[in-house]
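User: Just a sanity check before I run the rest of the batch. Below are the structure tokens for the first item. I only need the designed sequence back.
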């Protein structure tokens, strides 16, 4: 610096706003989408489960391409859609959630006959949700929690960023009789902050934030941030009511690095000697009901990596990999009781084939080898999971079938996968 000149450094800062993610990092256009859905053709039955209670129903509106959720008029019924996948959270990254819905479409009740909700939640035991009991008040942001910290509820009149009643910084008023885009972003780390808001006219308006670090809370604010998308309602007056669930996405903010590489790797080996010409069930893998020394409900994400097949016989072979088969008398055993959340079967029998085959091919005879790598896109379309109640399901189980093309042959296989926790 030349003599006689002075320089004053001026810090350039960006105030806390929608320009920053939940970790206060400047948002740039490189979020990694880890879950998404739109109801273009149906109710996405491979991705979403329908829970309808006693009188409720969930139907597909083909005109408006959305899910129509109806209580049916039975007090206490909880009718909702929940993604089969519990979407993993990666510590150190902001998780960004968008959900579109209309809680009070034309023809719905407007006097609070139902308690309506959308967000990330595992049947309300742990979750981040927006809830409404009616168009005139009763709008809440909620952190459901089973930890010692307990749940947190912020009613609209106590929203601390913008009450969205026309008096806040944005000047906007939330109208739940119109379609809305809910936004949630959070730094879990289990003591981090959670922000709720809406995208209105292309502008993200944050309405409330829960701050959980350096506060009076002595325990994590939530037990798990690995949560499914949920949308639905509870009948509280016994009157039929309707809401619309339209679209959703979840993104991990902070780059395109594949979070799945941090999973735990496992491999299952097996064989079938004297394999005949009829399509034959070889093995299947599915999540255990519980995992860990405390037998916690298992929501570990299964990611199929590859399947290697060796044919040592004298005849070429054909194989199928898929989901949705029906087995007779299977006997599932833990793959590794202490360290894996997966169980497997090799003794069951099957007269059919997988409902959905997403990979098939041939293996030549006399030492032919086939190595099948499965892309993450395939895994995302066919989640290997339990249902919402924690029970096994055929479309959430991985199956391997094979047959010899002529006479018999001897087949050996190795299935490799990751478990994301």
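Assistant: Here's the designed sequence for the first item:
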């Amino acid at each position: 610096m030349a003599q006689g000149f002075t320089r004053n450094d001026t810090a350039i800062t960006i105030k806390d706003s929608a320009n920053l993610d939940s970790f206060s990092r400047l948002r740039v256009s490189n979020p990694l989408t880890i879950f998404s859905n739109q109801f273009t053709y149906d109710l996405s039955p491979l991705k979403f489960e329908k829970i309808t209670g006693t009188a409720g129903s969930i139907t597909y509106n083909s005109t408006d391409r959305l899910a129509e959720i109806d209580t049916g008029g039975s007090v206490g019924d909880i009718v909702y859609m929940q993604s089969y996948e519990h979407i993993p959270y990666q510590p150190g990254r902001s998780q960004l959630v968008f959900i579109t819905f209309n809680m009070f479409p034309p023809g719905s009740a407007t006097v609070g006959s139902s308690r309506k909700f959308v967000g990330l939640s595992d049947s309300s035991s742990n979750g981040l949700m927006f809830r409404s009991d009616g168009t005139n008040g009763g709008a809440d942001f909620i952190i459901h929690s089973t930890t010692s910290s307990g749940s947190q509820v912020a009613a609209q009149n106590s929203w601390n960023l913008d009450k969205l009643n026309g008096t806040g910084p944005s000047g906007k008023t939330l109208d739940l009789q119109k379609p809305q885009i809910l936004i949630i972003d959070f730094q879990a780390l289990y003591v981090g902050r959670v922000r709720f808001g809406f995208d209105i006219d292309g502008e993200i308006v944050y309405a409330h934030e829960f701050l959980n670090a350096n506060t009076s809370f002595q325990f994590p604010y939530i037990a798990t941030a690995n949560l499914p998308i949920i949308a639905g309602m509870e009948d509280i007056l016994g009157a039929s009511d309707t809401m619309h669930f339209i679209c959703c996405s979840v993104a991990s903010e902070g780059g395109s690095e594949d979070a799945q590489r941090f999973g735990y790797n496992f491999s299952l080996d097996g064989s079938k000697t004297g394999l005949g010409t009829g399509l034959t069930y070889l093995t299947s893998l599915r999540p255990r009901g519980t995992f860990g020394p405390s037998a916690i409900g298992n929501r570990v994400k299964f990611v199929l990596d590859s399947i290697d097949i060796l044919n040592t016989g004298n005849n070429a072979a054909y194989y199928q990999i898929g989901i949705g088969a029906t087995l007779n008398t299977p006997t599932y055993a833990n793959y590794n009781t202490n360290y894996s959340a997966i169980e497997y079967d090799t003794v069951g029998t099957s007269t059919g084939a997988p409902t959905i085959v997403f990979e098939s091919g041939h293996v030549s005879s006399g030492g032919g080898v086939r190595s099948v790598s499965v892309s993450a896109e395939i895994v995302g379309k066919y989640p290997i999971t339990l249902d919402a109640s924690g029970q096994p399901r055929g479309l959430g189980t991985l199956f391997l079938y094979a047959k010899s093309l002529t006479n018999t042959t001897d087949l050996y296989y190795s299935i490799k996968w990751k478990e994301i926790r």
